[in-house]
Amino acid sequence: MDNIVHRKIRVGISACAYGAKTRYNRKGWDLVSEFGRDMSNFIWCPVCPEVMSGMGTPRTQIRIQGDSGRDVIEGRAKVITRNGVDVTADILSASNVCMDILKKSEIDAFIYMDGSPTCGVERTSLKNNKVGKPPGVFGAMLLNEDIFLIPALSLASPVRRWDYKRRLYAYVWAKNQEIKTKDELFKFWHNVKFLCQELDEKESRIMGKKIANSEFSPELAQELKIFVTALMKKPSTLEKIKNRLWKHYVYIKRKQGTEIEEIMAPQENRNMHHIAMELEALEKYAFTHDILFGSMPARNK
Ligand code: SF4
What we know:
single chain; alpha/beta; 2 domains; 4-stranded parallel beta sheet; two-stranded parallel sheet; 8 strands; 46% helix; binds iron/sulfur cluster
């Protein structure tokens, strides 16, 4: 069992976050180029439910009339334009078509544009910091599927981008592992346990004890995979990332007798770009020397 993701990761994305000018006002932003060389490890599947609904761009803004996109799907709310035109059926049908395309593309993850009554998951409005009526219609469909979700706007922060990237690699890696023996179970857990502990210390300790004290069974292997893939969807915090970076660095430094000059102690002040640079430096060092960097347990070839 190696820690490599042996295929390209398939990522769906709101088209306007991929640089397509599909917003109601004919705007769009390229929020993914910052992935840099990691871009080539992904296969991209951009979709825009509002354009697919036939409204085109530019178009009149829409909003949810009712509680949320979930209620739209269940027939208890509507989607209307600013002019009061009911476009519920068109948005529902286009969202279903987009979801079918994404399922056919076998996506692992979806990068959604928050602040939209269609693609939004946590917010359906960006006006005056309003949350709106989340999730949006397509956002509600995304939440119903086992998909690793990434808010597009969080990719602007280099540390949050790194956090999403390393958890996505670990998620796809864990999803693709076949665990058939106790030895494989231990190897699997050993690879991801440090990141699991960072994301949820208490639950990971409980899982660690269960693995140590149980006989191997396919059910236990499945339970562990479900536990790990669910946990990988949970964002970390800056403090945890900085502390773990230092902890892993100190371990690697002692083991290898080497120093990486960019890496600073957790209490030292530096900006997000510097922290991301430190994470990438340790990531690169660990992978080129074939050492486990517990904060980032999986990668592409
Ligand atoms: S948020 Fe979604 S529906 Fe709106 S323009 Fe972007 S891709 Fe299209």
